[in-house]
Amino acid sequence: MKATAHTNIALIKYWGKKNTELNLPTTSSLSLTLDKFYTTTSVEPANHDRFILNDQVVDATRVHRFLDILRQQLGDFTPLQVISENHVPTSAGLASSASAFAALTGAVTHELGMDLPKEELSRLARRGSGSASRSFFGNFAMWHKGIDDASSFAESLNAPELPIALVVAEVCDAPKKITSTEGMKRAITSPNYDRWLSKSANQFIDMQHAILDQDIDKIGALAEDNALGMHALNLTATRSPFTYFTDKTQLILSLIQDMRHQGILAYATIDAGPNVKIITTTQEAPKIVTILNHAIPSLKLEIAQSGPGISYD
Description:
Ribosomal Protein S5, domain 2, eight-stranded mixed β-sheet, diphosphomevalonate decarboxylase activity, Alpha-Beta Plaits, nucleotide-binding
């Protein structure tokens, strides 16, 4: 059985865990699924669990551990060979684990003959990667933080498709030095963390209204404020402060401000990594690409739009 799931970019971020075993987040989050970045995964019976990523056999402890979690949740099943093609730069802040664990969850459950609701699939995938809970849904999705395993799940916002686009500026595709898990552990030591949680809860509600009102300018402004607030936590952590930003990240942020001053709709959102996603409209996106290409000729740029939910072959 083969499943394809697309990555998603959180417009309202998840950054911190209140239960590491269950992957329960400290914040609810809201994302846009992207068409350009995805993972296709197939599973088949084998003599032992085996993981092949992009044609290379990989000793992935995280995948093996997740398969054992699925066995606990779904009932024991025979060893599987997992073959995965990842069309997302890994560990560079483009949510490669989201599409990867969503595709794996879908492939395993369908191999077992289970046709589970997407909300249930989101609970299962959350144990492998929190962001994966949102990748089962196309367009906009919400992940409710919940208070336990049953109440922490994702669902579609059921919003209309908007002429929204993301210009993805790939600053670096190398694995990041500080993993998301480690970054969250440090961030929660910031004296500003509780204030960010409270603000994020309000932004989660405001973002839903902005999307339903089809106000892309408001969507961008909320997303940028939420993202920059998240990254400020990393800098103010009392335990080993850090940043994912590079000089090129900072330059792109400055260019985005310049574009706004010129009347171009452009807002930044950045996950755990140096890469910048610029929220704009499908009409303005080519103009932004031209400006960035002129300012930073070596920059790799792609335009992504709203993507679909999980699919099966």
